[in-house]
Design brief:
Helix content is about 35%, strand content about 20%. The chain is of the alpha/beta class. It has 3 domains: about 10-175, P-loop containing nucleotide triphosphate hydrolases (Rossmann fold); about 190-275, Rossmann fold (3-Layer(aba) Sandwich), CATH 3.40.50.11420; about 290-395, Rossmann fold. It is globular, with a radius of gyration of 24 Å. Residues about 35-45 have low confidence and may be disordered. The structure holds guanosine-5'-diphosphate, iron/sulfur cluster (SF4) and magnesium ion (MG). Magnesium ion binds near residues 24, 25 and 66.
Length: about 400
């Protein structure tokens, strides 16, 4: 991924569902048009959904997800169900493509699944160039599903702008948190960022949350000063007034907290990102369950991906140790990663999810909704560690 591109995790995710041969892949290609750049494409086997990141006006930065129809994969039912669930978990807007007269049984399954999840849904009638009566066909869709379909032809590239505009109208309110720090700063504030002594990024770079925070503070018209923990004293001395806000890496929280001027507010990168990438209030509420944990309980620690470049030992070492210190050595801790997230959460007293840096906000919100439905409290790494180390009560979020 180049410097110019929006990280995939921050893009609007639009997934296409429908029968095999309804023209899902053709539609995605037609929508990219001439003027749009195909910036990434990862394809696997035929059953794997394909993710295409692109800039398309007026939608902006998005990811189109091309999925397989039932017909492609009947033999692989279970595998496919898991993959479908993982796509739906990430979907901000769902598109169901209709192109063939007949019973709408497969389309109905998609529409029902999408509605059950409360996802915004766009119906598209494709192949208008070949359908005997596109208007009558659309009328059937309207009647049977109470949907207002857009009528298009992927091969003739007609109706593409109608799809783009309809999608734009369907962007959900909670698709993104507009600003990482906006709720904690005012224009003109000085903000001091404190990084760990050993910067955890390849030479010449910073990790993405730090880069995104700096950009966000500049967007908020703040003055930004960055220092490693060892230079914190000098950084404070260099300022005529104490900073309005300090944002620290949680690893150096104790030393930063001890040097914090009384009137300066303090927060941590991981807690800030809990808002940006999820629902910090729900996570703080979930973290309260940590106080109630008993030795006989079972906790689920879930990682969204299987490669965990930076926080590899948090799930397996750090969190279990802190949790057992609090609840007792007998506490059971299960760690899962990737799409292995259990469907049944009822055995668990608490779910602690990773920061989900590789995934979009919707992904965590979907898992949060699942946990809420099961009546199981859920929090994330950043908030859980802040809670377990006594930080949470001392910071703003
Ligand atoms: N006549 C016509 N054929 C189309 C249209 N869109 C797709 N097709 C054809 O339908 C077939 C299936 O398209 P594809 O995009 O692979 O469908 P998918 O299985 O849903 O991804 C291909 O032969 C396409 O050329 C369309 O708008 N009009
Ligand atoms: S925070 Fe989650 S998504 Fe990010 S690297 Fe770790 S396990 Fe993967
Ligand atoms: Mg296809």
């Amino acid at each position: 991924m180049g410097f110019q591109q929006t990280p995939q995790a921050n893009r609007l995710h639009i997934a296409f569902f429908g029968r095999t041969n309804s023209g899902k892949s053709s539609l995605i290609n037609a929508l990219t048009g001439q003027e749009t750049a195909l910036v990434s494409e990862q394809s696997g086997t035929t059953t794997d959904p394909v993710f295409k990141a692109m800039e398309i006006q007026p939608l902006g930065a998005c990811v189109f997800i091309d999925t397989a129809g039932f017909g492609d994969t009947t033999a692989l039912g279970a595998l496919r169900a898991g993959k479908t669930r993982s796509v739906l978990d990430r979907t901000d807007i769902a598109v169901v493509v209709f192109a063939e007269d007949g019973d709408f049984s497969e389309e109905k399954q998609w529409v029902d699944t999408i509605r059950r999840r409360g996802l915004p849904l766009l119906a598209v009638v494709n192949k208008s160039d070949a359908l005997p009566d596109p208007a009558a066909f659309a009328e059937r869709v309207r009647k049977e599903f109470a949907l207002e379909p857009v009528i298009v032809s992927a091969v003739r590239k007609t109706g593409m702008q109608d799809i783009r505009e309809a999608l734009t109208r369907l962007i959900p309110e909670d698709f993104e948190v507009k600003s990482i720090c906006g709720h904690l700063v005012n224009e003109g504030d000085t903000v001091l960022l404190v990084m760990p002594q050993d910067i955890q990024a390849p030479k010449g770079r910073l990790i993405l949350p730090q880069v995104q925070t700096i950009r966000d503070l500049l967007d908020n018209q703040c003055l930004v000063l960055c220092a490693t923990a060892g230079k914190l004293g000098q950084a404070l001395d260099a300022l005529q007034q104490p900073p309005a806000l300090m944002i620290t890496d949680s690893q150096v929280f104790a030393e930063v907290y001890s040097q914090k001027p009384p009137q300066t507010r303090l927060t941590s990168f991981s807690v800030l990102f809990s808002r940006y990438k999820g629902d910090v209030d729900a996570f703080v509420e979930g973290a309260a369950a940590i106080d109630r944990l008993r030795e006989t309980d079972r906790v689920l620690i879930a990682e969204a991906c299987t490669h965990r470049p930076l926080d590899g030992d948090i799930a397996r070492v750090k969190l279990p140790r802190l949790l057992r210190k609090k609840a007792g050595e007998g506490l059971s801790v299960d760690v899962v990663s990737g799409v292995d997230f259990p469907k049944d959460l009822s055995p668990y007293a608490l779910v602690i999810h990773c920061g989900s840096c590789m995934f979009n906000r919707k992904y965590l919100l979907s898992r949060l909704a699942g946990a809420r439905e099961a009546g199981v409290p859920m929090t994330n790494y950043g908030v859980a560690i802040a809670k377990l180390t006594g930080i949470l009560e001392k910071i703003d979020y």
